[in-house]
């Protein structure tokens, strides 16, 4: 039974069949494992949202602007229905207070249900078993949580969907993280320029999102 | 391109470097050649506001016709952007997109000292599509002059709804 599931899991990832969805642990041992459960009213799919910043940069490291990835993530989430993606866990670098503040601003500006909970974590590790969607857009700091998520998936502990959104800065070239995500780690990789999509046809292009 | 004038008739140039340090840009803007002969000779800029990020506070030259102020950071610079008639920004995506979203004339200045300069891709793309003027600190003066004579293309709105629709469908929420 588990071998079949492993093949199914691999098959889904390799051939990009639609709807990689999260399954609760119980489905592994139930006969319904091939049926994709539809969320019912009141179901929540939890989301983990990763924000990547280098914290306040030193003078020498002007190559990494702190505004960038958090700003893009906030814009990305601006139209998301937070009732469907709750609770939300944001991963922020330890030294990055600016990002934490922007997240708080984003959260307070959203009209979401009183039940939704939000957490901001400074740790890069993902252990929470309830996470079903991982959304990341950043540099190498997003890789460890995705690797752990993949590990959990391979060990049949938790099936989560990893969606990577490449920065708007990337017009003709994919970042190293982007390539890693596209070919290995992510279920879906989204780019924001048609030229880049043409160069990497396996990516998803939805127009400019941020 | 919209040009906002305050009630007192002031016309503001807003310079931003985001969360970086870009002293070369600030120095060029405050250079007497730029300040007095280019910026002032235009249709009467009255204020120059500099957001200098992590940069060193520059010596502010005294000018009779233009009021110069500077600060390091603000929680939200969108109000400064909205009041400006011209924005001169570093090539960071956030600053560029914010300036474009308030539909202000925008000059994007690329910092050549950045390693790997990923900002260049976006700046060049925006420039080639006519949404901004792209230049380097050394060519800022001539760009400000050229900028007056050509029109900029309106930048289309972003579409975060496309993303949320996609994610919802992926996770099984769409009907």
Question: Order of strands across the biggest sheet of chain B?
Answer: 3-2-1-4-5-6
State the share of residues found in helices of chain A, binned by percent: 25-40%
Show unreliable segments of chain B: 1-7
Q: Tell me the span between the first and last alpha carbons of chain B.
A: 40 Å
Chain oligomer state = heterodimer
Q: Tell me the number of helical segments of chain A per DSSP (H or I, 4 or more residues long).
A: 7
Shape of chain A: globular
Report the average pLDDT across residues of chain A.
64
Describe the structure.
- The complex is a heterodimer of chains A (210) and B (175).
- Chain A contains seven helices and seven strands.
- Chain A has 210 residues and is α/β, with parallel strands linked by helices.
- In chain A, helix 7 (194-199) links the parallel strand 6 (188-191) and strand 7.
- In chain A, helix 3 runs parallel beside helix 4 and helix 5 (143-154) packs parallel to helix 6 (176-185).
- Chain A has one domain.
- The termini of chain A are far apart.
- Chain B is an alpha/beta fold and 175 residues long.
- Helices cover 35% and strands 17% of the residues of chain B.
- In chain B, strands 3-2-1-4-5-6 form a six-stranded parallel β-sheet, with helices on both faces.
- The radius of gyration of chain B is 17 Å and the shape is elongated.
- The interface between A and B is large, with 55 and 39 residues.
Quick gist of this model?
The complex is a heterodimer of chains A (210) and B (175). Chain A has helices at 2-15, 26-29, 67-77, 97-109, 143-154, 176-185, 194-199; strands at 45-50, 85-91, 118-121, 133-136, 161-165, 188-191, 204-205.
